Amino acid sequence: MEIDIQPVNLQTRTHFSDILEKASAWQKKHGSEGWNYPFDDEWMLPRIERGELFLAYLEELPVAAFRILWEDRPYWGAKETGDSIYLHTFAVRRDKAGHGIGETVIDKIVEMGRKRNLVNIRLDCSLSSSRLIAYYERNGFASVGTTLMNGKMMNLMERPL
Hints:
Blueprint: E1 3-7, H1 13-29, H2 41-49, E2 53-58, E3 61-69, H3 73-76, E4 84-92, H4 101-115, E5 120-126, H5 130-138, E6 142-149, E7 152-160
Parallel strand pairs: 4-5
Antiparallel strand pairs: 1-2, 2-3, 3-4, 5-7, 6-7
């Protein structure tokens, strides 16, 4: 599967927000907490400027959205050692879920980390999201702790690059 990763820009930001808003609604409908903030310009524009937001394309169709950080002290605290790439706000278009896109995107993010000689890919997800935790475990991630963020218990997960 050929997935092309591109940074989000002003013209493509609606694709990013659309994928995440629909994924969040789906999560909430299926008992997960989902994200508790809108993916509006107030949230997106500073992150676009910092180069944190990305879209994954399959045959020119945006099929996944995600955010990359190179440091994440708020979630990882003392475990932040500067050797990891951090995956946040990751979702696949609901009508494309189950086709291996998520796994392929994770592999592309692993490549991004390796190019910087990093050691791990890290992420967090709500501790109450058992389906999401199981998904990441199937993709090689292991739980390495928890943290309380914005009133939610978060499961910290990592995978060696």
